[in-house]
Amino acid sequence: MSTTIRAEALPAHKLTLRQRLDLGSGVFPYFLVAPTIIIIALVAAYPIIDSVRLSLLNNPLIPTGSTFVGLRNYIQVIGDPAFRSSVGVTIVFSVASVALETIVGFGVALLMNKAFPGRGLVRTAILIPFAFPTIVSAQIWTLMLNAQNGVLTDLFQSLHLLAPGDSLLRTTNGVVLAAVMIDVWKTTPFMALLLLAGLQVIPSELYEAAGVDGSNRWQQFWLITFPLLRSALFIALLFRLLDALRAFDLFYILTGGGREIQTMALYSYANMFVGTTFDFAPGVAAAVILFIICAVVGIVTVSLSRISQN
Predict the structure, then answer these.
(1) In Å, how far are 77, 87, 263 from 84, measured between CA atoms?
(2) Terminal alpha carbon distance of the chain
(3) What is the pLDDT of residues 225-241, one digit of tens each?
(4) Burial class (CB in 10 A: 0-12, 13-18, 19+), 168
(5) Which pLDDT does position 226 carry in this prediction?
């Protein structure tokens, strides 16, 4: 009895800050990520929301003249043949470049995953194209594709792929082809390294067991390598698709900022900042459409990744 009375007389244990925040309901983790959420809201969410607001106004830069016009800017942009052309250029460039980068990067990753003399040097060397800024890479390739004295232009003309005096940068298809070549050259190392990271976490015991069971290399690839690499592959595709869809600087250098051949990002920039009018609401609307497309691509890719894991 005396022990019970003595225990009841003791003061209650003082709760720590973490215990007061947690309270058994899991609040503490949210408290830890709150600063990150606030920063993301300030630097990402607010500009997106404000862009949507501006796209619904007429003359948004003039406080006294801006009026709500609803979806008129979106209708104007969608009805513009230049915008529809930019959508086609963006889709063709994104699909072609990402597909080639994935195939070539997959092959490079498989080769670098093997043990051979100088493997470390090779891994470092393939990063050189990726280390160049896109503007620098585009400028170098523009010089090589120059119609007068470009090295690649002379090569294509000698192979009769181009007429004398012609250049890839004079037609829409030629510019897209040149952009795909540059992007594949520059970004394939990025894809290869992401896939190589996925390959290196696959246990070698699986291949040894499969070899004991009599499976060949092709069967090991389809039954072991590819299924276990799908998560890394989807991550690589997500990064590259989003990056390709917002292509701007590459096409800006190749075309000199011209309006004849544009991606969606270049079309948005040209409408907002190039010209004599300050009414850039249609350009903001084009940027919002590009954001929606990127969001849909991201959601679909993540959903497919989760389905493949189940």
Answers:
(1) 8, 5, 10
(2) 59
(3) 888 888 888 888 898 99
(4) buried
(5) 83
pLDDT tens-digit map of 36-60: 888 888 888 888 888 888 888 887 7
CB 295 within 8 A of CB 243: no
Tokens of 253: 């250098």
DSSP 79-113: T-HHHHHHHHHHHHHHHHHHHHHHHHHHHHHHHHT
Angle at 157 between CA 152 and CA 163, to 5 degrees: 130
- What is d(CA 305, CA 233) in angstroms, rounded to the nearest whole number? 9
pLDDT at 204 (0 to 100): 81
Name the token pair of 239: 């990064």
Nearest Cα neighbor of 272 from 261, 285, 260, 290 is 285
Q: The tokens of 141 are what? A: 């390739």
Which CATH superfamily includes the segment(s) 91-263? MetI-like (1.10.3720.10)
pLDDT for res 104: 92
208: left (phi over 0), alpha (psi -120 to 50) or beta: alpha
Please report, for the chain, the start and end positions of each structural domain, with discontinuous segments joined by +: 91-263
pLDDT of residue 14: 66
Judged against a pLDDT cut of 90, whether residue 90 lies above it is answered with: yes
Instruction: Name the burial class of residue 182, with classes exposed (0-12), middle (13-18) and buried (19+) by CB atoms within 10 angstroms of its CB.
Output: buried
Q: 57 - beta bridge partners?
A: 68
Q: Which residue has the tokens 């350009």?
A: 283
